[in-house]
Design brief:
349 residues, mainly alpha, 16 helices
Length: 349
């Protein structure tokens, strides 16, 4: 997923290093969510008989990864001193160009394997994230761009009455979600996609609210009184919040509590080197999110046997992470260069 990572964070509870920890954990949750929770995504040669029973218990808890990224987007937008359309355009085009380059890379095996019938119309629709036969999990690209285009207008209202804005958005998006599920036919995909994805908007506003009022610092001051018990409290907070999503997905509350527990735990542990792999995953989380689509898109009959070759779920997850990480490190080189040249050319730096 994607969020602002170059903002002014002098007074932020979450540092840049902390961000990579949070993004890394969220990315692992995303991989677990997609690798083992949706039997309908498996090709005909892959079977995990226990997937349906596992999905019942873990589908909603693992989906907290989405609300985490949405929350961080709003949180760091508050600390950004450049709340202009120029900034939003730069961040949005950085993401879109990264998406587009990975799309072009994933199109190559799809065409060579003759599993994708290329047409100008289908290609353009996927370029603008309106259909996703190749980039199957990338709906958040359109969500992020929409939010970034709205925030330069909305932030003034958020400055004056952020809690009210967050509450109203929760009510409105809940109504949208209900209407979508009950009354909008599934074949009207564009409309249903907009309404369904709107449920994450309150998480963005929640991030802004937590940053504005320094709620993380307030929680930290309160829990510091517990001394070493704070580590246990952090662990309990993470587990309880994740499991609570199955009963009530109030993500504008769940996400910040999950993030606080994770960041505070990292601040307190002595052996921070243990988190280095998670930091690396967090650094490349956006491209890993894009590249793992190869295992579930039109090429899945050919790529899933490679992903699931280890058979053991833990090894499958590790193997998937390694493959996507290596691909992301390689792809990051041209993507970073192109985005820098784009920003320099259009004066977006």
């Amino acid at each position: 997923m994607y969020l602002n990572t170059d903002d002014d964070r002098q007074n932020s509870f979450i540092t840049k290093k902390d961000t990579n920890i949070v993004k890394g954990v969220a990315l692992v949750f995303m991989f677990l969510h997609h690798f083992f929770i949706f039997p309908n995504l498996y090709s005909s040669v892959i079977t995990y008989p226990w997937s349906e029973s596992v999905a019942y218990y873990f589908c909603e808890p693992l989906k907290i990864c989405v609300s985490v990224f949405a929350f961080l987007t709003g949180y760091f937008y508050y600390f950004n001193n450049n709340k202009t359309y120029r900034y939003s355009i730069r961040k949005s085009t950085d993401l879109w160009i990264s998406y587009l380059i990975v799309l072009l890379v994933l199109l190559l095996p799809a065409i060579l394997l003759n599993v994708y019938e290329f047409s100008v119309e289908s290609f353009l629709l996927e370029v603008f994230v309106l259909v996703k036969p190749n980039m199957v999990f990338c709906w958040y690209v359109l969500f992020y761009i929409t939010i970034m285009m709205l925030l330069p207008v909305l932030y003034k209202a958020l400055e004056k009455c952020p809690v009210l804005i967050m509450g109203v958005s929760f009510v409105i998006t809940s109504v949208f979600s209900f209407v979508t599920k009950r009354f909008i036919p599934e074949d009207i995909s564009y409309i249903s996609q907009i309404f369904e994805n709107s449920i994450w908007v309150p998480c963005v506003f929640s991030g802004y609210v937590f940053a504005k009022y320094g709620f993380f610092d307030s929680i930290s001051r309160f829990l510091n009184r517990a001394g070493y018990l704070s580590i246990l409290i952090d662990l309990m907070m993470i587990v309880i919040v994740v499991l609570a999503r199955r009963a009530a997905a109030y993500d504008f509350i769940n996400a910040p509590l999950f993030i606080y527990g994770l960041v505070d735990l990292y601040h307190r542990v002595m052996f921070k080197r243990l988190f280095i792999p998670i930091k690396i995953i967090g650094k490349y989380s956006m491209l890993m999110w894009f590249t793992h689509c190869i295992f579930f898109n039109v090429c899945k009959d050919y790529t899933q046997p490679i992903l699931y070759y280890p058979k053991n779920p833990a090894l499958v997850t590790l193997w998937g992470i390694i493959m996507c990480l290596v691909a992301s490190i390689v792809l990051n080189i041209p993507i970073d260069f192109i985005n820098k040249q784009k920003n320099k050319l259009f004066g977006l730096l």
